[in-house]
């Protein structure tokens, strides 16, 4: 399927066809193959099955144990009984042939979360256009944090109100959990078209930055909502609410700190060792340090996805400057390739899963309600937040930009991975079916009409990125002190960004890279011995 997708993408690019992006194409191929597997499967083979039941009076049906250890006797009199470990797969509601089909075409959801997503998220941080990202940092963080939270609760409110009219057992906590996971936008299709057409860099930065950060927020928010549900026992509990809020802040801050720290450690290793003389080893070190950030954060109880995102941003900002020319090219190409394959694999699998994933419950009213919920959530996210931001911005977020951001709220790999990770209850099975259809429709339909929407909204394309860079160049060190007021104007009152930029240029970059000015020039004279020790010949 990936080979077929690649060849079709080449044909579409060659013919300049932009109606279908590769991700939408992957989903279409997945749908076709899923339908073929579903309706042409053989029912002759039947897997061997052994049935066991618990003989005590404990009821596990509502919350079955994740793992069972069963002691089985052996044939030999000289060998002790063996203990066998079984893991929870889900409720069995299919025939034996269906179970075999599911085993054949279904992957472990942990594969997505532990292998695919770290690569996709790291590459997003590593390939980020940092200048435009930081120029619009205030707006991006407002959309990602405030907007995503508004979207989550607006969606949850719509779902709770309308599911009361259906014959579905869907609690308020389930509504907000679904709102958290479905608030993760993934406009990969639209961003690819933006890149090809060289759309206005500020719009690109807003859409890209919001999607990257809001993925991280949605992941942590869904965990916090789940934790609140465990503590509140179905009713509003003030203590549980603040506990969940503290959990959200602690996990996000911890993951941010761990990801940034791992990036800084990699920068120090590449700066103070001669590993750059061996580009292959340097690239391997860079890859393993980056991926181990995800593992370390998960092991520490934080969110690996958030950690690996900020690791990618830190690696691009510091470590990249220390790499040899060969490693710079290799790391960019390695993660770009891995991201391309992982992303298309996920979208292919979504297409196949529509027909073959058995642990999904389908309800047309529930799916339509979910579409209404994401529309309301997106409306209450983009327009009110933009209005509030424009009150303090000299470079206003224009109306056509806001409409395009509204249109760009596609759902993708993150929402699917969060939904498929747990399908043990009826509510979760309704979520996964709705999520698959939402991803399918938004990626194929909205992605296909992106070019027409840009023309209709009269958004400029063909923008020279380098020309925009010249217009927004940061003040150089020699003019920082004398032109502080001009620098502030260039940063459009982004006081915090300007302060961080000055601190970064004077202390962080000289410490973590070989850039100038050196620490000898920026640190106080009393720290001169330390500055000389930390300054390399390069």
UniProtKB/TrEMBL annotation:
Membrane topology designation: Multi-pass membrane protein
Keyword NAD found: no
Main localization of the protein described in the UniProt heading: membrane
Residue ranges of the TM segments: 19-39, 140-163, 175-194, 241-269, 300-320, 340-357, 363-383, 404-424, 430-450
Location of the protein in the cell: Cell membrane; Recycling endosome membrane
Residue ranges occupied by any Cation/H+ exchanger transmembrane domain in the UniProt entry: 4-456
Gene Ontology cellular-component annotations: plasma membrane; recycling endosome membrane
Molecular function GO labels: potassium:proton antiporter activity; sodium:proton antiporter activity
Keywords: Antiport, Cell membrane, Endosome, Ion transport, Membrane, Sodium, Sodium transport, Transmembrane, Transmembrane helix, Transport
Pfam families: Na_H_Exchanger
Gene Ontology biological process terms, A to Z: regulation of intracellular pH; sodium ion import across plasma membrane
Stored InterPro entries: Cation/H_exchanger_CPA1 (IPR018422), Cation/H_exchanger_TM (IPR006153), NaH_exchanger (IPR004709), NHE-6/7/9 (IPR002090)
Listed PANTHER family: SODIUM/HYDROGEN EXCHANGER, SODIUM_HYDROGEN EXCHANGER
Family: Belongs to the monovalent cation:proton antiporter 1 (CPA1) transporter (TC 2.A.36) family.
Protein name: Sodium/hydrogen exchanger
Organism this protein belongs to: Lottia gigantea
């Amino acid at each position: 399927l990936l080979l077929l997708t690649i060849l079709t993408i080449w044909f579409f690019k060659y013919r300049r066809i932009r109606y279908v992006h590769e991700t939408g194409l992957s989903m279409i191929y997945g749908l076709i193959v899923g339908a073929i597997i579903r309706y042409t499967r053989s029912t002759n083979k039947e897997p061997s099955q052994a049935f066991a039941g618990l003989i005590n009076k404990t009821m596990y049906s509502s919350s079955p144990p994740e793992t069972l250890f069963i002691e089985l006797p052996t044939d030999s009199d000289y060998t002790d009984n063996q203990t066998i470990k079984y893991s929870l797969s889900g409720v069995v509601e299919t025939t034996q042939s269906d179970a075999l089909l599911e085993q054949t075409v279904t992957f472990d959801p942990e594969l997505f979360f532990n292998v695919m997503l770290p690569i996709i998220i790291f590459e997003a941080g590593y390939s980020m256009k940092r200048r435009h990202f930081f120029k619009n940092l205030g707006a991006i963080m407002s959309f990602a944090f405030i907007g995503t939270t508004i979207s989550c609760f607006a969606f949850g409110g719509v779902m709770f109100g309308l599911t009361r009219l259906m014959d579905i057992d869907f609690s308020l906590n389930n509504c907000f959990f679904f709102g958290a996971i479905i608030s993760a936008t993934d406009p990969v299709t639209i961003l690819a078209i933006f890149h090809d057409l060289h759309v206005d860099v500020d719009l690109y930065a807003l859409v890209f930055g919001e999607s990257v950060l809001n993925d991280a927020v949605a992941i942590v928010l869904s965990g916090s909502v789940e934790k609140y549900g465990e503590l509140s026992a179905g009713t509003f509990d003030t203590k549980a609410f603040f506990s969940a809020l503290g959990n959200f802040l602690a996990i996000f801050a911890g993951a941010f700190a761990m990801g940034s720290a791992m990036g800084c450690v990699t920068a120090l290793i590449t700066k103070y060792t001669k590993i750059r003389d061996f580009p292959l080893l340097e690239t391997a070190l860079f890859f393993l340090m980056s991926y181990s950030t995800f593992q370390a954060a998960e092991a520490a109880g934080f969110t690996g996805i958030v950690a690996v995102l900020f690791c990618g941003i830190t690696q691009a900002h510091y470590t990249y400057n220390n790499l040899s020319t060969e490693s710079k090219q290799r790391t960019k190409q390695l993660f770009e390739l891995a991201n391309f394959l992982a992303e298309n694999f996920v979208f292919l699998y979504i297409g196949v899963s529509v027909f073959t994933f058995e642990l999904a419950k389908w309800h047309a009213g529930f799916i339509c309600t979910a579409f209404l919920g994401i529309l309301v959530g997106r409306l209450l996210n983009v327009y009110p937040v933009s209005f509030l931001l424009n009150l303090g911005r000299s470079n206003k977020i224009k109306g056509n930009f806001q409409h395009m951001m509204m249109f760009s709220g596609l759902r993708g790999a993150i929402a699917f991975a969060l939904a498929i990770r747990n399908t043990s209850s009826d509510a979760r099975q309704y979520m996964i079916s709705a999520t698959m259809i939402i991803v399918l429709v938004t990626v194929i339909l909205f992605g296909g009409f992106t070019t027409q929407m840009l023309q209709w909204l009269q958004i400029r394309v063909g923008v020279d990125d380098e020309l925009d860079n010249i217009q927004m160049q940061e003040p150089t060190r020699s003019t920082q002190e004398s032109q502080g007021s001009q620098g502030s104007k260039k940063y459009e009152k982004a006081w915090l960004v300007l302060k961080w930029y000055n601190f970064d240029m004077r202390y962080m970059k000289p410490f973590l890279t070989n850039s100038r000015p050196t620490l000898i020039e920026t640190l106080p004279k009393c720290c001169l011995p330390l500055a000389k020790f930390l300054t390399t010949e390069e």
